[in-house]
Amino acid sequence: MTDPRRQLPSMDALLKEREAVALIDRYGRETVKDSLRRALDRTRAEAGPEPSGAVDLLRAAERDLEARSRPSLRRALNGTGVVLHTNLGRAPLADAAGRAQAEAAGYGNVELSLSTGRRGSRYDHCSDVVCELTGAAAAIIANNNAAAVALVVNELARGREVLVSRGELVEIGGSFRIPDVVGRSGGRLREVGTTNRTRISDYAAAIDESTGLILRVHPSNYRVEGFSARPSLAALVSLARERGVPLAHDLGSGLLDADLLPGFPEGPTARGSLAAGVDLATWSGDKLLGGPQAGVIAGDAALIGRLRRNPLLRAFRVDKTTLAALEATLMLYRDPDLAVRRVPALRMLREPAEAVEARAAAARLEPPPRSRARVDVIRTEAMVGGGAFPGFTIPSAGWAVTGIDVERLAAECRTGLVPLIGRIERAAFIVDVRTLPGEETARAAETLASALDRLADV
What we know:
- By secondary structure, the protein is an alpha/beta fold.
- The protein is built from 19 helices and 16 strands.
- It has helices at residues 11-15, 18-27, 29-46, 54-69, 95-104, 127-134, 145-157, 178-184, 200-206, 233-243, 270-276, 301-309, 312-315, 320-332, 336-342, 344-350, 353-362, 406-414, 440-456, and strands at residues 77-78, 82-84, 138-142, 161-165, 171-172, 176-177, 188-192, 211-217, 247-252, 280-284, 295-299, 374-385, 388-402, 420-421, 423-425, 428-432.
- Helix 5 (95-104) runs antiparallel to helix 14 (320-332).
- The longest helix is centred in the N-terminal third of the chain and has 18 residues, at 29-46.
């Protein structure tokens, strides 16, 4: 009896097939050869009674190519109801920012002055519009807010003490702690006051010749309630000026102006902080600002000049596409009404719950008749996320799927062509529609319906 493995087509023969030529055009010759080799090896190992022909091998290779070419970083549908979801990339970019990134992907005047034809600085980009929007005298951009804080500490308090209230020694995502940032940046942390109460007199008593910086940190990812107090920003500004110590304010999430989110809890804003007289303010670009990941530093021109000359800035520098997306986002804020319509994070946060519920109901999502699942439109509670407004919830709406193994359903939705991420609450799979703007609501409905259909056959 002839060994079926001897009847397998050769690699050369397979590569000449019309289907293989199309795959080569898409994936490249060496990549296609590797997948065909895998298909041949699997066929030889299985050694079935019937030989596999070229068609079977090419189909197997195509499946392998599709699986291997699927990027690990993929677009996902956010049905969690958390607008600034850290695990899902925080703020989605505005269309204008996406277009700016694509435009900047080629050559551009990243470090070239178009007016003089000489070398320029990437830190000139975005600075003018930041100053225009906040009233700052100067500004620069780092690659995230932690880098911005680290740079400020390194330049102003390297080898010296940094005064921080004990109630502001926060830990952000990934076990990243303010004490670690200060220490690794060359500063010596000096804790001021107590966890729940810090007075201006505590700061005054701590200032001496070794003090390099007073750092005010907004505890954006938790709240201290009850018997608590800390001095006003105005009081800190007054003390810092009196003692000749620079004051930096880490805003964290970084809302430009409170009027952008009416009805939300009171919190620090970039414009308000700088108007109060802090020397430097830092905040994130990819949280409440609704732009790309970046760290904005704005304030005193002389101090910004020192930061621009700090060698550490090169390690924290931003890519050209980030600068382009950030500038496009900031320009939308010149007209606040335009910003709330076109910055996705602001638009999602401000959408009335009734409008969200209407979008959820309009999808008319129903499970297949053979499924035991039930889908209801329900009221939910969404969250801001990104460490902003802890404990504050936003009335919202979405779909609740019950009567089915919700863990399997969640996994089925996550592994779809476009992953849909929801949450599980008390034996129900919840998809919050607030974080599914525009056409994403319909796409999420299709993904969920497809998952329910597949599970009905199991």
